[in-house]
């Protein structure tokens, strides 16, 4: 572990590269989500080259430590007001939903033998008053692997639950213009394929893309002074 302090000093460069790699293909399309053509799934994927004098074990240890110490980063929301502080909320139903989406321990697994980390992320998105989207709770996983002097991260398998923001009962996502509606529980791909209210969902997609970027940028800021990225 003698190289760990030196390794930590250059981490800012690593995650600056991470931000660039992740959003190079999505920056020009902030109002859409990145769909992998091969799988048909919304997928955010990026990789970071690790300097040859930094072992995969050291890079893995640094990443694992950050994820373990910054658990609050992985429960996210577009609202500064907590749901329990909103007026007219059914506290009993909200408590049940909050229990289901509790993310106090987002790191689901740390596997040093395979240099793999699995992290659960919960995002709560609230639509504007009178909008089609009420309380949209999303969860997905960030899988991080370190191998062959490269850190690879992938975010996918995004599922959602949609609730009335006051009763916290399941609610179909209505489209008032033609009386259609979407399932209250499904995948993000289902929304993309079937959504009708283009302007409102465009706003949601933009938020989600920017929020993923914010999460990565916070990770970058949290490990300032580090560095294991290979220089071009």
Short description:
This protein has 232 residues and is α+β, with helices and mostly antiparallel strands. It contains six helices and nine strands; from the N terminus they run H-H-E-H-E-H-E-E-E-E-E-E-E-H-H.
Structure in words:
The protein has 232 residues and is an alpha+beta fold. It is 32% helix and 26% strand. It is built from six helices and nine strands, in the order ααβαβαβββββββαα. It has helices at residues 4-9, 11-23, 56-69, 91-100, 188-194, 198-222, and strands spanning 44-49, 75-77, 107-111, 116-126, 135-147, 150-163, 173-175, 180-182, 185-187. Strands 1, 2, 3, 4, 5, 6 and 9 form a seven-stranded mixed β-sheet that branches. A hairpin with a 4-residue loop joins β7 (173-175) and β8. The longest helix has 25 residues, at 198-222. Mean pLDDT is 82; it is low at 1-8 and 12-29.
Question: Keyphrases for this structure?
Answer:
single chain; 7-stranded mixed β-sheet; 6 helices; disordered N terminus; 9 strands; two-stranded antiparallel sheet; 32% helix; 232 residues; alpha+beta; 26% strand; globular
Rounded radius of gyration (Å): 19 Å
State the major sheet. Answer: 7 strands, mixed
Round the mean pLDDT to the nearest integer and report it.
82
State which percent range the strand residues make up: 25-35%
Spatial separation of the terminal alpha carbons:
26 Å
Number of helices: 6
Secondary structure topology:
Elements: H1 4-9, H2 11-23, E1 44-49, H3 56-69, E2 75-77, H4 91-100, E3 107-111, E4 116-126, E5 135-147, E6 150-163, E7 173-175, E8 180-182, E9 185-187, H5 188-194, H6 198-222
Helix pairs in contact: 2-6
